[in-house]
Amino acid sequence: MTLKPMLPDALAGRLSRSGVAAVVTVENPDDAVPIARALLDGGVGAIELTFRTARAAEAIRRIRAEVPDILAGAGTLLTRTHVLAALEAGALFGVAPGCNPATLAAARECGLPFAPGVMTPTDIEIALEHGCRVLKYFPASNLAGPSALETMAAPFAHLGVRFIPLGGINLASLPQWLASPSVLCVGGSWLAPREIIQRQDWATLRRNAELAAEVARARK
Ligand code: 3PG
User: Fold this and answer.
1) Probe ligand 1: pick from 44, 50, 138, max atoms within 8 Å of CB?
2) Which of 15, 18, 60, 66 has the most C-beta neighbours closer than 10 Å?
3) Alpha-carbon distance 13 to 25, whole Å?
4) 143 CA distance to ligand 1 centroid (A)?
5) Would you say the CB of residue 75 lies under 6 angstroms from ligand 1?
6) What are the residue ranges spanned by the domains of the chain?
């Protein structure tokens, strides 16, 4: 339990200040920069590019080069290869849906700040063994809500464990998750759904970000 934290405090602070992290799946890397700009202009300071398409690494590379003020990370990191590709692309953090010890070890070895997915106390204990203190709580909305998260978080609170709930969250449920004391920030794809990206409707994307950022500001 004495490992260096897998996600540095400064990074956790940026996630907390944003309050919201947009989960985005990019099919066309040309969309990456306008998406990141619209989110940032709307007040959302963190983006997670999912490794569900072959374009994720390129999207991260472009965002890091052209929209450096947004905190750009990689999501859906399921393998060591994903972890290395995310790091090489310049991802500032990595997220996974689960708590795969091989992926955790890869992130630790190469120094990629990492938030693995947890849904049980056993998952949390595995993550702690790898030095993780910021954890993705997934699939948040299929579990029993923020009060269940707080019950599970209680035995780990003294270790500084904080959560990023993801999975099925939207603008309507955002306030209750943000009000939960162990929540660092809240993530989801509702800000930048596939239809909006396909239409290249950056004004709606920005509006979604503004609405979410307004809720996030209200918790401060
Ligand atoms: C994911 O990995 O898909 C994220 O947890 C986002 O979930 P959502 O699409 O339900 O918001």
Assistant:
1) 138
2) 60
3) 24
4) 14
5) yes
6) 9-218
Task: Tell me the C-alpha to C-alpha distance, in Å, between residue 212 and each of 16, 20, 145.
Answer: 14, 7, 19
**188 CA to centre of ligand 1 in angstroms:** 5
**Ligand 1 pocket, residue 168 CB under 6 Å:** yes
> Active-site positions?
48, 136
Q: Which residues pair with 114 in a beta bridge?
A: 94
Q: Residue 151, class by beta-carbon neighbours within 10 Å (0-12 exposed, 13-18 middle, 19+ buried)?
A: exposed
Residue bearing tokens 């630790």? 108
pTM score, two decimals? 0.95
From the CB of 94, is ligand 1 less than 6 Å away? no
User: Does domain 9-218 fall into CATH 3.30.390.10?
Assistant: no
Nearest residue to 164 via CA among 97, 109, 90:
97
115-135: average pLDDT: 96
